Amino acid sequence: MALLEVKDLKTYFSTGDGMVRAVDGVSFSVDKGQTLGIVGESGSGKSVTCLTIMGLNAKRYTITSGQALFNGEDLLAASQSRLREIRGNDIAMIFQDPMTSLNPVHSVGKQLVEAVQLHSEVSKTQARARALELLKEVGIPRADRRIDDYPHQFSGGMRQRVMIAMALINNPELLIADEPTTALDVTTQAQILTLIENLQREYNSAVIMITHDLGVVAEIADDVVVMYAAQVAEKGSVDEIFHRPRHPYTWGLMGSLPRLNADVDRLVQIQGQPPSLLRPPSGCRFHPRCPYVMDVCRTVNPDLAPAGDDVDHLQACHLDEATKEREAARLLGAVAGAS
Amino acid sequence: MTTDNQVAVEPEQTLQGDELLVVDGLKKYFPITSGIIFQKQVAAVQAVDGVSFSLREGETLGVVGESGCGKSTMARCVMKLLEPSGGRIVYRGRDITHLSRAQMRPYRREMMMIFQDPYASLNPRKRVGFIVAEALEVHKMGTPAEIKRRVQELLEVVGLNPEHYNRFPHEFSGGQRQRIGIARALAVNPKLIVCDEPVSALDVSVQAQILNLLKDLQRDFNLTYVFIAHDLNVVRHISDRVLVMYLGQIVESATRAELYGNPKHPYTGALLSAVPIPDPDVGRERKRIVLEGDVPSPINPPAACRFHTRCPRFVEGVCDVDPPELVPRDGAPPSHTARCHYPLERWPLTEVEMRRSAPVTA
């Protein structure tokens, strides 16, 4: 059984302008020790998916359906008090912006001690010792002196480390990282990714990595979910997605990336803007931007179906297999041939 | 215009003749003061400390570095949005370092800037037409009817609907706003555009649109770019030459092919190895060279080589005593300079080779 299995998850927000379908029928699963990468543009529903799993959306004006089975227990049906037990113990989350996710008026040590004491019956001294141990583990230099500093005295990379330390207090089985490196420089990003990988190896945790950076996904993910306009466009193993991409949106994402290991004169661009989730396009949601659009795309939203013979590689596109094979080969050839 | 305030450029800089911009030993220190009434300067943030480069017409110069390395401050000094503390800026053979605001005005038409944050760099209370037309009006370039026609033409050039002339910035998405910023920069037919992280805030698909647009505009209008970014992939895509900055100094300067194919400075090597590559086969094979710690404070930068506190090749008694010069290293061509005593022998290097204690110099 998978550690986390999300089935047909839907999250709608009711607003003054109408219903925003932020997540519209998303399914995926993560196993122990595995890393799942969720990629997509801003507004594609990646973060809302994870907030819904964690039960962190405001109850008011939010309509949720589907299932999120964590060790067989449906998180969407769990009570608030049960969720509070799970959050921080079994599932932990790292947020994108390390500047705003720490409380600026309390010292880093105090915030860590609070988190330790919330989840275990320990004395303040013991909690402080554990906090110090965690700060050392995530590589804060001179942790014994920095523990009483305030967040503003830490750099962005160090604040993100503190967030990771806080997430790791109880060695969670599942770590959800929402764009953990987006606000950071490449050198700091490399430090944080290495840290997450090492910790995952040590505790055999599962990781869900939300990102818009295909490079990060290629390096650390085992499986990939590509989201577009609140739905899954394609999902499969990292090798399948990068070597046999089967959805025009995935092709667009890959072609639009400038790469260190390839020279192209012009980037492939996806025309237009991501659609509004208030009034998503009819049929396939990608059809207004898709260069391969056919009549059927405008009316029928394609189901997620296996791509060819691989049952784990799913994609939602009406194009026939031969065309996809040809176009994917052409794109990858252009990238490889230019290097 | 009199010749009195036109400071002659030294002969070696005019020799090549086609240089649009020459920056020589540029410095910008921000004072740190203490005291309330009797303020005295106690220290200085050495944001930019002796940066020199030159730029030819039609060229794109990429500038990379971590946050806080002084790349934006450098750009603002070049644009004279900040008064430099030292050094010279020579634009088309004229020293513009100490020109007053009024004296700068004719040059402002030729040097424009595109900013990072498309949400913060457009006035939310002005219509798009006004934002784009403002520079034209300041420089009195045409009658109101002509200006309006020009603005609509510009909106079309950057891929926006000319009928959106009367809309407000909030009605546009991030990518479209960045296009408005580009139209504004293009309005007065500039020669030089300084782009300060123009695509950092955008999604990859939109980022590709903007990068393609910038390349097309460069071809069509013979523009010269200074392109600042922290994304090495983006800089590689758009630049002809690249500067790598660390703590206010240039640590390596080379053509694009040289810098990415044969980096000499360990910092450049570490940056390159840290960039995730969107190919699972390459990505898994490769080892990231992880630098220890954070960038030191520019108030009190490390002595001699500023990178020595984090450098895997640090040699005690050399790197922390003798400041390295920015010169060609190890058989690199004259255009490829690096500020390091123990440059990388080849590329790529493994982490162990990177750490290997450097050979003793004669």
3D architecture notes:
The complex is a heterodimer of chains A (339) and B (362). Chain A contains 12 helices and 12 strands. Chain A is of the alpha/beta class. Chain A has 2 domains: 4-221, Rossmann fold (3-Layer(aba) Sandwich); 245-337, no CATH class. In chain A, helix 3 (108-119) crosses helix 4, helix 4 (124-137) crosses helix 6 and helix 6 (156-167) packs parallel to helix 7 (186-203). Chain A is globular. Chain B has helices spanning 11-14, 71-78, 101-108, 128-138, 144-157, 174-186, 204-221, 232-238, 256-261, 266-274, 280-285, 351-355; strands at 19-34, 40-56, 60-64, 86-91, 94-95, 111-114, 192-196, 224-228, 241-246, 249-255, 327-328, 337-338. In chain B, strands 6-7-8-3-9-10-12-11 form an 8-stranded mixed β-sheet, sandwiched between helices. The relative contact order of chain B is 0.12. Residues 1-15 of chain B have low confidence and may be disordered. Chains A and B meet through helix 6, helix 7, helix 8, helix 9 and helix 10 of A and helix 7, helix 8, helix 10 and helix 11 of B.
